[in-house]
Every structure is written in C-alpha cells, then in structure tokens.
Queue: 2 jobs
Job 1
Amino acid sequence: MYTLSKNIGGPESSFDDEDEMSETQTDDVVKGFSLGGNDYIRKPFSMEELIVRIQNLLRNKSEGVPKITGGMATMGKFNFQLNRQLLSNGKEERKLSFRESELLKLLYENREKIIDRKDILNLLWGNDSFFNSRNLDVYITKLRSYLKEDPSIEILTIKGVGYRFIAG
C-alpha cells in the first residue's frame, strides 16, 4: 500500500481501523488501474492462480492480432505475398529477400505494438550480436524506402527499445 508507511509511527499507531485499510487498498488498486494496469492480484496469492493469469494474458495477446492468412496481407496501398516474397502496389512489384519478407511479416503481425529489438534479432537471426543489429538497421531502412509511397504506413523507431509498425 502506498500510504501504509505513513501510518507506522510509534506505540500510539494502530491498524485496528479496518475501514481505513480497506479504503486505502481500494485507492491503491484504483490508482494502479488509472496508471495503465489491467489486472490486480491480492496477497496472499497462490502460484497456481498466478500461472493461470499469466497463461490467460499470453493467450489473449496472441489471439488479438490477425496473422497473415493465405500467404497474403494488405497494408494500405500495398499487397504483401509472403509465400512469393512479393510486395506490390498495383503499379510495380518488388521481390523481397527472405529476411525482408520475414521482417515485414513480423512487423505486420505485431502492428500497432512495440516490438523489442532484441526479440526481432533473436527471432530472425538467432542472436542479438552487434553485427546482426547493424543488419537489422539496414533491413528496416530498406523496408521504409519500399513503403514510403504510402504515408499511412510507418515503421517507427522507439529509441532504446525497438520498432512499431503502423499500417493505417
């Protein structure tokens, strides 16, 4: 509790007032939710409950974003054919490399979310070494140049964290 430490003073301090404790706990929960929390677990809690809560969060996270189905995705003015590694805008087609395709797929399937740079490196290259990190920068730059024709599509750099793909 945020205010518990204020109540600990000396021998005259008392925690007999259950209503005050309950109000403080409720205030703390409300404050946590207002700061962006989406769950609360009261102590003491069981390990089984914690595990089930984590599993539910992970399941809900993976169900929320549509994946590329049928090997095809539409991103603004562009069509991306994963199985052919092809990006087209109606006027021209661009053959993508394997890494470009996999990176675009990863960004698309996690659109509107921040993807950690280390996660991208580990998923696509198997490790997050300095050299692979520089390769990732090059591939991001290439994808940005391919997609620049559509201003509703952006690959944002979240400094010190990773990337966010916006496909409006």
Job 2
Amino acid sequence: MHDVDAWLADRATMLSTDTVHRLHGILRAVLRRAQAHDHVKRNVALLVDPPRGTAGRPSKALTADQVARLLAAAEADEAMRTYVVVSLLTGARTEELRALTWTHVDLEAKPPTVALWRSVRAGGETKTRQSRRTLELPARAAEALRVHRMSQRHVQLGAGDRWQRAGLVSARRWAPHWTRRTSAARSVEWPRSPAWTRRRGRRASCGTASCRCSRAA
C-alpha cells in the first residue's frame, strides 16, 4: 500500500490529475486480475486515494475574437473561406478535409451532412477507425459548401483538360490539394506567445459549434 502511495505521489509531480486517476484505475484493474488468479492476496490499490496532479496546460483553442478575425480574413478567398468555416464548425481534422470528396458531402439531405471517412494518410485511413464519422452540417457550413461547389464548377470549366478530376472538395485551381502556404491565418495578428497553427482551428470548434455526429458503421 505504501509503495502504491509513493508511486502515485511521484507520478502526480509530473502528470495531470486526470492522468493520475487513470493510472490508478489501471493499477486497480491489474491487481484485481492478479487477485482473481491468486497472485496477490488483496488489491491494495483499493485502499489508496489518488493524489492531485499538476495543473493542466492552458487551452490552445482560439478565442471568440480570434475566430471572428480568422473568418473575416478568410472572406478574401472564397475557397479558403469554405475550408475555414467547415473546419471551425465541424471540428474536422486538416488531414480529413484535404481528402474530402464531393461524394461524401450531401447538401440535399435534411439536414445536410458530411462523411469524414477518409484522410490523406497512407491508404486513406483516418487517425483511428473510430474517427470515421458523419456530421450534421451547420447552416453556415452547408451554405459555404454550396457556394464553393458552384465556384469550383466554373473554375473546372475554365481549366478544361488541365483540371485534375480527383473530385476533391479542397481542389485548388488545378492542384488536387490545398497549397500549404495559402492560409488566411497568415493575415491575422495572433498573440505572440502560443504559435498559432491551422490544427488549432479544430480545437476552436469545440466552443464554436454544436454538431450532432454518428459513427460510421
């Protein structure tokens, strides 16, 4: 029991309270299994209260003001505006949006939906199998996609044979993926302390949108 106390106290000096509680839960489960097989006489982890860990790291999500400035900056570029709006309002990962095709966007459904079943990872797999999901599109995101689809069709007609027919929502001019250096975020003055990245747009979505989602079967 004293060993468990000492071990958890040591972990608490470098881990968050939530992580310490998870470690305590894992230890309880391991000792319960060991006890069931007569490897230990009792589960001493049940007699220990996990200590409080270190304070969690500050949130890296965008503030409401940063979200507003990002959306305003993206207005100058219709295609990037769509990318930013959908990213913020659905919480889709950048790797998922870059692989998103129009066949996985249903703007005629009631409500409109987007199926995030693919990514630009090897083999098109999402981060985990559980990451595959279908999201209900907020009205603003659905409208941005409708405008973008119409605009993309005009660009496609002008491009002719040069258009790469990948069916990607994020096809930019005649390239199959977004240009990495093109980002509305570059035109926004962000606080200097935490370096902003596009991935934080996904974290911002937690406080920006409320979407219902269902896991893909």
